[in-house]
Amino acid sequence: MVFSSAAFLFYFLPLVLASYFLLVSFGRARNWLLLAASLFFYAWGEGEYVAIMLLSIAANYLFGIWVYREHQRSESKLPISCAIGFNIVLLIIFKYTNFIVDNVNGFTAGLGIDPIVIGKVHLPIGISFFTFHCISYIMDIYRRQTPPQMSLPNTALYISLFPQLVAGPIVRYKDIAGQLLSRHVDMARFSRGINRFVAGLGKKVLLANVVAMPADKIFSIPPDQLTAPVAWLGILCYTLQIYFDFSGYSDMAIGLANMFGFKFMENFNYPYISRSVREFWRRWHISLSTWFRDYLYIPLGGNRCSPVRVRLNLVLVFFLTGLWHGASWSFIVWGLFHGAFLVAERGRFGKFLDEGSGVLAHVYTILVFMVGWVFFRAADLSTALAYIQAMAGFGTGSGLEWHVGLFVNPKVILALCVGVVGSMPIIPRIKAWREKLAANRRTAGLDNGLEAVVSLAATPAIFILCVMSLASGTHNPFIYFQF
User: Fold this and answer.
1) Percentage of the chain with pLDDT > 70?
2) Which of 288, 53, 284, 292 is nearest to 168 (CA)?
3) Would you give the DSSP letter of residue 445?
4) Is the Cβ–Cβ distance between 419 and 155 less than 8 Å?
5) Phi first, then psi: what are they for 175, rounded to 5°?
6) Any idea what DSSP says for residue 149?
7) Which of these, 320, 405, 440, 470, is most buried using a 10 Å CB contact count?
């Protein structure tokens, strides 16, 4: 079940919200309701594989208590090692087994060794996210930043809470531990939650889904038929698609959290306005980048090591960042690609970006992440390299650049224009200006009735447009990475 589906919008969410507020006087019952709803939400798409998540919950609940009690008595690293090892092994089994076996077979084929034959291992949706939630929970207990959760149902709710279960953001236990026990939703907060959810739904349905259609068509063209204009059009569409797809999902998750009294961290901060790859990763998927910073980069020594070691740490972190997104070499190369530019920006090149022309720095950053998205989107590494070759003008296309009408229409053109504007902080600045103007009018004793009507009408209008788009069967792809 995805947030933009009719089943979620018209059945699951209204029923859960109505039941939740009927139990407003029964704090613990509300948690039980959210836990049941979250498990049902996951089982809807994964069926019996919900057992994998339940196993992870039970194991990490026990690991949390063991790590805490053992750390109170001694400095033994056995509990934390077992806990981290369990979570990593679980992730490897279900996400990377086929990738490992395929590469081992590819290596041993030339040695005359019979290939390893196994069935296709199912990848449970969201396993990367709930595994990282579990690791951060255990690590924060080990670091004495939070005590363990002694209630198994509350531990289960933290890990399985449906707004963040499938695609994040990655929520730290210490940030919502108090909210698991006590939270309050007033009309203002609930209204903000609805507005944020609908804004995210609009990003997903009205922008990401629309530009996904030409992106899919162009990336399905054999690389030897690509020309530079068509290749650039395809990656432009995908650049906007992945941003509005992923940030829209995060907006919906944050909005849902507000509706139920939780507060999630912001996950995107207009990354496409960045003037360096360093800045891009401070703005893109913030919960993931801070996770890798706090639980891998800093423990490896962070910036406190020698310059060579710092660079090696960056490369390792982004190798694992790429591997986390998907079990394929194209994702690994995408991670190393970003890591290489981060290493370059640690030296004089970084100073040049900081002190030089902001326009040139911005253009450089746009080119880096757009080329990087090719590795992220292409079916495999060879296809990605051929696509980049076409973008550089070295393709062998047959004139498809003159048939742009095959890929775009007025709706796509409008979505591209709105997407470019929406990827910049123009709308928040207009909103802030309007709010300031409305405040001045109130101070002057003038009527703000029209302003209020416009504000109230915006969210329903976006929601209606989304429903109409979904009803018309608009392309609705899932995010292109293997969580």
Assistant:
1) 91
2) 288
3) T
4) no
5) -80, -25
6) P
7) 470
